[in-house]
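Repro:
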Amino acid sequence: MSLNLLKFISRLRFLSQAKRLELYPPFFLMRVKALEISDNWGRVRLRLPLNMVSKNMGGSMFGGYQAALSDPIAALACAKRYPGTDVWTRHHEVDFRKPGNSDLELHFEFPPQLDAQIRAELAATGRSTPSFEYAFYRRDDQLCTWVRSTVAIRPEGYLSGVGRRYKCVKNGP
């Protein structure tokens, strides 16, 4: 059912990438707002609202919300940039540095030098396993949570049915 819903959402061409990402069921339920997604996913900014559902017992953002939102972002960016590959999150590290006592904004940027390195590795070996660092910021612009996500980029069909995979769907989420 959810796979059919995802395919349906990805085919709604009249909606922007940002709106399709917001409609992704887990993000929709978390009330994620896409503030910016560049065409090549070189820059992504998402707002994760602090509300009665996302608050932990201490009154700050539940860490699971931050992990769930940040997990697929690097893999989605790679899937958009490198068509004809299978991409999935291989390792995801979340370091909670300050309480998330306000709405949080995820800032992701795809470094040009890392793009060049990945393209060189894909050309030479057909695979790459890059790591990305990005973060959540509180409303007062303080870094709240640091994220490192390592993704596996492999030839299409590399391992069927293993891990979280994101295939490039033209203009999809």
